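User: Here's a protein and a ligand (MRU). What would the complex look like?
Assistant: Let me lay out the input and then the predicted complex.
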Amino acid sequence: MEAQPLNIRAEADRAIVWEHDRLYLLDQRLLPAREEYLELREAAASATAITDMVVRGAPAIGITAAYAVVLAARARFAESAERWKERIEQDLRLLAASRPTAVNLFWAIERMRGRIATLGEGDPEAALLSEAMSIHREDAAANRAMGDLGAALIDGPTSVITHCNAGALATGGYGTALGVIRSAHVAGKLRQVYADETRPWLQGSRLTAWELSRDGLPVTLLADGAAAARMAQGGIGWIIVGSDRIAANGDVANKIGTYSLAVAARHHGVRVMVAAPTSTIDMQVASGEQIPIESRDPREVLFCGGRQVGAEGVDAWNPVFDVTPAGLVDAIVTERGAVLSPDREKLEKLMA
Ligand code: MRU
């Protein structure tokens, strides 16, 4: 099959597109300078796209993996109509190895594996595509629900600080943290959004600022180190962030820098809200200490925009997530409801 260009305008709500029987990802490494889609035809290329940050954000990674399973099933069924279920296991393993922290990846792969198990003889593509589309659609719907639940907790109008990009780009649409911020904006509760620039990948300046400004929300960028000083000036009601994995006791793994933001928030009497779908809650993991934290190439810190900024010969420590203890979190907002001052008992009740 020939490559078919995707003739649509790039939009945050269309970061992941299934069209012409193929998967297209808005290449988030190029934003905001270039708005280009990358076409993916195979599971292996999709796994590489996840590792290389073409697509990022916990729910978006899971949705991408679900569509990649459709591509894998197509190839494996063409190879062998009898043995495709056995052979696809290596594709599922490859996808699961693409990034370690966001539990949505493993959640989505498990859901696709479960669907595969129910299939009989015959071409599996239509059934698996329908499952991947459901995962995609359900995530966008969950974000709308979370948006309203989260916005209801905000006494506005107030300003908020967000970290990384937990927006439409990072999800099936609308966003988790940015979903709450969008709903608060619609409800007239939002004065200003301060977006941490989020070194080293600059998801805040490149993605959150792009996404919010295109949609007409009032967004101001902050160097990560400026957030505490902005809190000290007053007028910040909430820190609102997403999550890559929430442990059973309410500890929250999210983009590196979230923990220091939460510590500073507690000092300044600013509340912390984590917006995440229940697919981000991992009840198998008792506390944050057990969440695998991805470490990436030191060059991501030593270079900026392709230019070396670290002194020659110097090393860098580059964990890309950190864990905020549950005690520093005021609310976890999911599509099933908001949990205030989260702990194990409350999360068990929510997930029951
Ligand atoms: O490394 P990234 O860009 O994948 O990290 C993303 C985050 O940390 C987000 O805050 C998190 O996935 C929540 S996205 C709705």
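Summary: The mean pLDDT is 97.
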